[in-house]
Specification:
With 152 residues, the chain is α+β, with helices and mostly antiparallel strands. The protein has a domain of 85 residues. The protein has four helices and seven strands, in the order βαβββαββααβ. The longest helix has 14 residues. The chain is globular. The C terminus is likely disordered.
């Protein structure tokens, strides 16, 4: 995360191994967005519950803040926690994001479709083998691009 030049309005999608709240806060301060899979032992305080837009795969959409003292010092702002049940794999996923404007299913779709973006990244690495983006992914989505909603 330290080597990525953050861009305003860009989306950065990370696996939970990259959970570093100080760096996520720096990313957020650059007006960029992140989606990251939460670790199971994450201590948070739920501030508000949002509706789930009648989407059965979205179990909850919440405004939260970190509950641990040192974690809160690293990331003092509120963010979202989205819990998503994937019917295909029959697994529960918990995502964190600083984007308050997209829907909960769009958060889940961004993370779920990261495999597609990794294929694009791999294609770029073949053409540019000196790239340092081997394990991280940056997705820039223009303001006119909308993720389709797969819920009725």
């Amino acid at each position: 995360m330290a080597v990525i030049p953050y861009e305003c309005g860009a989306y950065y999608i990370f696996d939970r191994g990259y959970m570093d709240f100080a760096r996520l806060y720096a990313l957020s301060r650059h007006s960029a967005y992140y989606v990251i899979r939460a670790k199971r032992n994450l201590k948070i305080e739920i501030l508000e519950n949002f509706g789930t837009n009648d989407c059965p795969e979205i179990l909850s959409d919440q405004l939260v803040r970190l509950d641990g003292f040192y974690s809160y010092l690293d990331y003092p702002e509120n963010f979202r926690r989205v819990r998503y049940y994937d019917k295909e794999t029959q697994r529960l996923f918990t995502y964190l994001t600083n984007n308050m404007e997209i829907t909960a299913d769009q958060v889940a779709l961004l993370y779920k479709n990261r495999r597609y973006y990794k294929c694009l990244e791999y294609h770029c690495l073949i053409k540019h083998p000196l790239s340092s983006f081997l394990t991280m992914l940056k997705i820039t989505i223009s303001k006119n691009f909308f993720i389709t909603n797969n819920c009725p």
